[in-house]
Specification:
- This protein has helices spanning about 45-60, 75-80, and strands spanning about 1-5, 10-20, 30-35, 65-70, 85-95, 100-110.
- By secondary structure, it is an alpha+beta fold.
- The protein has one domain (about 1-110): Gcn5-related N-acetyltransferase (GNAT) (Aminopeptidase).
- The radius of gyration is 14 Å and the shape is globular.
- The structure holds coenzyme A.
- Coenzyme A binds near residues 14, 42, 69, 75 and 76.
Length: about 120
């Protein structure tokens, strides 16, 4: 489920996608997001993640949203902390980024605490 993230002026600032939506006993999805470099630091990703999580738990009726970050991605970790995600592990060589398999921190947000 793809979205664009807009500025207050309606310009496209980035993208957020909920993918891998799995039903059955899992009721879970994965979330990914990015912003144009000149749109970072304004809280846009935090606002977009909040909206996507509410959508996932209310409209999609999912139980869980997961997200991953590179260990050094301080900004993304901060977005997830501010939106109620908890880190539950470290996945070795999880995604191929710029040609090499990188370790990632793995986070989840469960729908028992919509904020
Ligand atoms: C990660 C990303 C989505 C964050 O979006 P954002 O709208 O800038 O997030 P916020 O404005 O809410 O800022 C998040 C926090 O990170 C801090 N921050 C921003 N850039 C930073 C940097 N380069 N280094 C350290 N901290 C940084 C902000 O000051 C803010 O701190 P606070 O929570 O204490 O206020 C954006 O930087 C981005 O698109 N990065 C490239 C793609 C990417 O990493 N996507 C996520 C993959 S997991």
């Amino acid at each position: 489920m793809p979205w664009v993230i807009l500025t207050d002026d309606g310009e496209i600032a980035g993208r957020l996608t909920l993918s891998g939506i799995v039903r059955g006993p899992f009721q879970s999805c994965s979330m990914g997001y990015w912003l144009a470099e000149d749109q970072t630091g304004k809280g846009l990703a935090t606002e977009a993640v909040r909206a996507a999580v509410i959508f996932a738990f209310t409209k999609l009726e999912l139980h869980r949203v997961q997200a991953e970050t590179l260990i050094e991605n301080v900004a993304s970790r901060s977005v997830l902390a501010k939106t109620g995600f908890e880190q539950y592990g470290l996945a070795p060589r999880y995604l191929k980024i710029a040609g090499s398999w990188k370790d990632h921190l793995v986070f989840q947000r469960l729908n028992d605490s919509v904020r």
